[in-house]
């Protein structure tokens, strides 16, 4: 019984360290500032806001992360996860949303990538693949992702080179804590 409790405590300790219910900002808007808005031919009324980024709540840490269950084989406490897959003659990197959809994909056998590489499976190819995936993520508005590389895969120097390529390009492999929704008793 104590082993199960220690496992559960370790599982939650890695993901839930602080309960954040508010965001502080240096930029404060008064109701008059919001009411002014901008007057232009294509502007909508200032009292309405239109969200064009479907992952905006994740970027602002307002979207609740799916915590999954304690006995899940793989932890599901992420919004977006980076995965590296090795095939017989190529590598493929994916950014997977927590719903299971593949958001962004990059492979060493794409025409534009393969024409620039000497080999599709060497260290240089894997590092460039990490840079390509990170660039596509940043262009798509995704600034951070969960590192979905297993500890067994981290033993490989090619996987380490892939992760170095991602971090060199500016994609953070650590997601921020999410902000818990306020409850009635928090007031």
From TrEMBL:
Keywords assigned by UniProt, alphabetized: Mitochondrion, Ribonucleoprotein, Ribosomal protein
Disordered as annotated region, ranges: 31-52
SUPFAM superfamilies reported for this sequence: Translational machinery components
Localization: Mitochondrion
Entry annotated with the keyword Oxidoreductase: no
GO cellular component: mitochondrion; ribonucleoprotein complex; ribosome
Gene Ontology molecular-function annotations: structural constituent of ribosome
InterPro entries in the cross-refs: Ribosomal_L18 (IPR057268), Ribosomal_uS11_sf (IPR036967)
Predominant location category: mitochondrion
Record-level GO BP terms: translation
Xref: CDD domains: Ribosomal_L18_L5e
Family stated for the protein in its record: Belongs to the universal ribosomal protein uL18 family.
Name under which the protein is recorded: 39S ribosomal protein L18, mitochondrial
Organism: Tetranychus urticae (Two-spotted spider mite)
Gene coding for it: 107369357
């Amino acid at each position: 019984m104590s082993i199960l409790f220690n496992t559960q405590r370790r599982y939650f300790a890695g993901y839930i360290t602080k309960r954040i219910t508010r965001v502080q900002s240096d930029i404060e808007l008064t109701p008059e500032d919001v009411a002014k808005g901008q007057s232009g031919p294509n502007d909508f009324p200032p009292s309405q806001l239109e969200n064009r980024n479907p992952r905006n709540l994740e970027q602002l840490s307002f979207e609740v992360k799916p915590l999954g269950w304690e006995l899940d084989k793989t932890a599901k406490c992420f919004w977006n996860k980076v995965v590296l897959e090795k095939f017989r003659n190529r590598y493929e990197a994916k950014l997977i949303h927590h719903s299971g959809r593949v958001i962004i994909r990059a492979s060493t056998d794409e025409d534009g990538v393969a024409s620039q590489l000497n080999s599709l499976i060497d260290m240089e190819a894997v590092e460039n693949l990490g840079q390509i995936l990170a660039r596509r993520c940043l262009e798509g508005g995704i600034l951070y992702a969960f590192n979905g590389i297993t500890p067994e895969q981290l033993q490989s120097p090619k996987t380490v080179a892939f992760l170095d390529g991602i971090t060199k390009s500016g994609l953070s492999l650590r997601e921020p804590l999410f902000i818990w929704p306020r409850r009635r008793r928090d007031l």
